[in-house]
Amino acid sequence: MKTRIKGGNKQSNKEKTLLSTKFKSRLYLGLAIISISIFMVFFAPFLSMQLQNNQVDNLNSKAQTVLFYKSGCSACQKIYPSVFWHNVKYYNQPAKQIQVVNVQNMNNQHYIADYSVTQTPTFMNKMQPNARVTTTNKQVVNGILNHGVQ
Fold first, then answer.
1. Are 120 and 69 in contact (CB under 8 A)?
2. In sequence order, which residues have a C-beta less than 8 Å from that of residue 116 and are 6 or more positions away?
C-alpha cells in the first residue's frame, strides 16, 4: 500500500510565480531581439541609402564598380538593398564591394558631370568608365554584383 506525504512534490505558489516571471522575461527579451533583427533586415538598406555618402571626395581605389544613385529615385530604391547586402557580405574585401555615390547630395553632384551620368541607377566599371549599365532588372544587377560591369 502506498502512502502519500502531504505536499511532497508540489511546488509552492511562490516558486511557480518566480518560474513564470523568469519565463516571461526571457520570452519578451527573445521577442524583442527577433523584432529588432527583422527591423534591421528590412530597414537597414533604406537607412543606409538615405544617410550614406554625405560627401564622397574621390572614388575608392580598390572598388572596381561604382553605383551612382539618387536616394529619392524609386528605381534606385528597388535595387539598392541588393547592393547594400552585397557590400555587407564583402565587408572585409573592398575590391569586391560596389562603391555607392548618392548624386542627389549637393556635395556629390560633380560626379554627374565628371562621369556623364544621365540616369540613375547607373553601374560603372571604374577601369573602363564607358562600360556602364542602367538597370533595375534583378538578374542583371546580380550579374553585376558577382562579375562587375563588363
1. yes
2. none
